[in-house]
Amino acid sequence: MVLNYIWIAFFLIAFVIACIRLIFMGDTEVFPAIMNSTFETSKTAFEISLGLTGVLSLWLGVMRIGEKGGVVNALARALGPLFAKLFPEIPRNHPVIGNIFMNISANMLGLDNAATPLGLKAMEGLQEINPKKDTASNSMIMFLVLNTSGLTILPVSILVYRATQGAAQPTDVFLPILLATFASTMAGIIITSAVQRINLLNRVVLFYLGGLSLAIAALAYGFSLLSSAEMEVWGVNVANILLFLIIAIFLGAGIRKRVNVYEAFVEGAKGGFETAVRIIPYLVAILVAIGVFRASGAMDWLIDGAAWLVRQTGCDADWVGALPTALMKPLSGSGARGMMVDAMTTYGADSFIGRLSCIFQGSTDTTFYILAVYFGSVGVRHTRHAVTCGLLADLAGIVAAIFVCYMFFGN
Fold first, then answer.
1. What is the pLDDT of residues 130-141, one digit of tens each?
2. Can you say whether the dihedral through the CA atoms of 392, 328, 318, 400 is positive or negative?
3. What is the pLDDT of residue 194?
4. 340 contacts 329 by C-beta, under 8 angstroms
5. Cα 249 from chain centroid?
6. How many CB atoms lie within 10 A of CB 179?
7. Among residues of the chain, what percentage have pLDDT more than 90?
8. pTM recorded for the entire structure
9. Is residue 84 classed exposed, middle or buried when 0-12, 13-18 and 19+ CB atoms within 10 A define those classes?
10. What SS3 state is found at 93?
């Protein structure tokens, strides 16, 4: 429903501004430009969807090998003690823990379409142990905040979009996204735990989250000692090594378990084509709306206005061009994806704004969409503090994304 209103608003605002430019400014090219943008963006959306097909098939196939090879189960056992502290309402060894971990794992690997059905399954399990069926439980809210904070270790789709948009090094945003999404996730956990009175100052939580925080902090400190050129070189190499290492581990686990890795890969990869085809109409709808919005001049007015306000504070305004992606992300994943692609198309995939849009896209998730779909699937009407905690986590991710982008790609 939210996306419906946004989509209508794009067209209405574009029409009003185009009329203003035609009547008061004598711009006779505005409406032809708008119509041309509808054809161009429709073609772009289809080409992007085709470009996604192969990579989605690849990673869905690899994920299937990892699942059959026992990698996911091994990680679930390793993270069991942490989950017991973050979700104290869930009985020990309850099956829903596995569903939660599978969902979070899919999100961490950037497989949004694979994560959604797993998340719905986890929400059904949480609803079974929820004493008030129309009200969100603490465990539901913590689970949703972990989703909306969007912890992403492997942003596959973003890397693919960068490749299709002609980025020289599509993986150069890998580490910046990791740092920004980690900040968002940690903020979400801390805020939600404070509201739910979960004690994070115990040995188990400090061991897991403290260890992860130290590793990320060490990584960030190490890169802060490098020049921008050195950061790019190291970031690209580390990203590609980690990506290949993940594939190797999954394959090795499958071979060790005597899994027919070829058949497992094909089984998982079949969903790649279906997923790519399924997103075509959504991508066409949002890219056409954004194209019309931009061709009318509305996007320039919005960005120029925001940039003017930022400059009045004495701050640098180079990042404002990527702001539409950040503002759209809590509302719609496809909408933010369209904004990201539009930013790379307009400014260049390797521009500061193009890169920052990608980091914005990877640093958080679609808060309102997740809340609507997940809670709606189990009939929860009272969301309690879920929206507040989710949006605060989003804000932390946006601030972190701007800071990290300046650290890696600022002049």
1. 888 888 899 999
2. positive
3. 92
4. no
5. 24
6. 22
7. 12
8. 0.68
9. middle
10. coil
